[in-house]
Predict the 3D structure of the following.
Amino acid sequence: MAGRNFLFVPGPTNVPDRIQRAMMVSMEDHRSPRFPQLTQTIMAGLREVFRTQSGTPFIFPSSGTGCWEAALTNTLSPGDKVLAARFGQFSHLWIDMCERLGLDVQIVDCEWGTGVPLQQFEDILKADTRHQIKAVLACQNETATGVSSDIAGVREALDEAAHPALLFVDCVSSLGCIDFRFDDWGIDMAVSGSQKGFMLPAGLGILCASPKALAMYPSSKLKRAYFDLPDMIQSNATGYFPYTPALTLMYGLIESLKMISEEGLDNVIARHHYLAEGVRAAVTQGWQLKLCAKEQRWHSDTVSAVMLPEGIAGTEVIARAYHRYNLSLGGGLSKVAGKLFRIGHLGDMNEIHLMAAINGAEMAMLDCGVKVQPGSGAAAAGHYWRTHEAPSGLCAMPKPQEAQSNTPRSSPALTTR
């Protein structure tokens, strides 16, 4: 098929050209004297993105699922009680892993399209006067439904209950895209991956652990080997790894961290919100359709799940978009399978790039019998973007006052705080 494939699933995301070039390196000895510099550069950059000074980052040759397992097995013991809400496929899968590892999961089932129920969590934690709950699990961004949850609110619930449970957060599809504050929110384990906001191929599991979480290792009794954090700590202390690292992905990660630094983390987060608002305008104002997210407070800035009218199969829209227009959209999963399609709007992206997804999805819907006004999606998105100030990361031309100044600007630091 002529032309490029337009990838708009919520991960893996598009890999920028400069990251692809950075990964085109000759293989080298991962035990060489110069290798620790690579490791140290990555760890420093990850601390900035996690917004932590006290946390310890880890990278595994795995997916984010591997880091789910690392977080659980290095802190908990068989039979330990954990609290978790289920409101989408990925929050469900983390719960499923807990149960398969022998943990006692107190599940709060929520309507899909909503997020972590803060008041219910607080009530449960206050009632647990014997502190039997050892960890609270929260998925910051549920990609199956396009829902984001308030992680600062989860920390407030723990604090209001004066509960000592560990706080574990899945930030796989939110880190580097949606505001995330490891230290400020008192997070103990944060789980992420390379193929979302870091704009890399899949293959790196990224974890950050608090001192409190790492102190749990001697008492934890769950089995682990590959994901043993003390093995990683011992090797990482000298800049090495206990097994062969994913070298090319590590070079790509360094370039990704540079790109985030150059734009500024706060600007990256603002860009994602600005772009997401345009997509939401296309869906609700242009197409007159609904999002899976039930309320504005649940809206995700990395993925929008678009509900289709009764009688229209999401699988048909997705197949039409792919086979006719070379556009890859995300499908519905589990409870919402066939009822929606998903537009991923995270990573290396701008307004014109997103217009391809909006126009392609609209043509596919029209072909499949969805009664939307042709051109309405792009019109609504374009109106939003033209009438709202774009974050600096989207502005190729300097603002007038910048153009008139001859004062050189220093390059941005890795942090924006």
User: Anything to note?
Assistant: The first helix runs from residue 17 to 23. The first strand starts at residue 6 and ends at 8.
